[in-house]
Amino acid sequence: MTVTLRPFRDDDADAVAEACGDPAIARFLPFLPQPYTRDDALAFFRHRPDDLAVVDPGTDRVLGSIGSTLRREGVAEVGYWVAPWARRQGVASAALNQFATRLFEQGLERLYLTTALTNGASQRVAVAGGFIREGIARGSTRSRDGGRQDMVVWARLPGDPPGPSARALPDLPGGSLTDGVVTLRPILEEDGPSTYQMRSLPDVSGRSVVGTPMDPAVVTRQCAESVSKWLAGQRAEMTIRSAADGTYLGEIMLYYAEPFLREAMLGYSLTPQARGNGYASRAARLVTDWGFEIGMSRMIAGTAPDNIASQRVLEAAGYHREGLQRSRLPGPDGTRIDNVQFAKLRPAAT
Ligand SMILES: CC(C)(COP(=O)(O)OP(=O)(O)OC[C@H]1O[C@@H](n2cnc3c(N)ncnc32)[C@H](O)[C@@H]1OP(=O)(O)O)[C@@H](O)C(=O)NCCC(=O)NCCS
Known about the structure:
Layout: E1 4-7, H1 13-20, H2 23-28, H3 38-47, E2 52-55, E3 62-72, E4 75-82, H4 91-105, E5 110-116, H5 120-128, E6 132-142, E7 148-156, E8 177-178, E9 182-186, H6 192-199, H7 202-205, H8 216-231, E10 235-242, E11 248-258, E12 263-270, H9 279-293, E13 298-303, H10 308-316, E14 320-330, E15 336-345
Helix pairs in contact: 1-3, 5-8, 6-8, 9-10
Residues 24-25, 28-29, 80-82, 87-93, 115, 119-122, 124-125, 128 line the site of coenzyme A.
């Protein structure tokens, strides 16, 4: 994708007003007026004369906007949006790469941006633009409802290679894993209600180290933020669905807790209706094989000693029992319980 960056002109005002009326822009750029009018666009051109229009090089049509603010000497923050009619064509990634290169040529020493944890599209733009995820700035931005929200901080320095930046957990090949019976795909915001229902079941929350979920809104937010953990290389959270009709069956996670050891841990839960059909074993096999494909040397999983169903799942997926870790897991009422540790090793190259 090639884009041109040029100053805004007053005859761009209608296109800018139309673009900024979009719900995703309202959600993720909470400081923009809503509803957004032609006059708001003209005022924006006056107040921020250095912000640039991202346009189609052939037609000069407005596709988006990009601009930066100097925060201190040598350090600037970049912001951007792309009009709904130009999304998912690489416009933001191309504009960000071009803009960053230009600023570094002018002597900038650090360019950073912040994204909401739920803004998967913008976090992907940051990765595509060669920005490195640095951490979470808690409560750093005001949200449209007047509260404060956490933001992910991404930065690129002049010596960093151009994008995309490296990821410890890549996307699933083609977006999902399937064996024709179950399909696994990343957890999304829309999975919130089913996920809450399942995580609230006593035999699911009772076996979870994080306990019972607080309320549906919290679980829906966790689902929406799942993309952030995946892009950070911390964990890949997937929903398990019937390959035939998409029925929700449960969830499975790969936790990448030990990058230096190239060891990841598996965790999973199914709804009561889905149990007893081999779905968890199928999902465990799919995620384990994917783990080895993306470079894991060891996949591990643990269960409480009395969780026979889960131990059968791991054996069916080719895991071997390695031992008993005493008092590893939090039990009910402040007690501790033992963990039966299972592992599967990366198959030797043939
Ligand atoms: C974020 C935004 C600028 C992305 O613009 P875009 O031109 O569609 O982005 P690109 O086409 O360059 O896509 C970059 C990557 O994000 C992915 N992506 C884009 N939109 C996505 C979406 N809605 N869901 C999942 N992935 C998405 C693309 O597939 C691409 O991935 P890849 O690099 O792995 O191939 C646009 O969605 C937008 O304007 N959102 C509202 C305003 C906003 O969030 N601004 C940034 C605030 S921090």
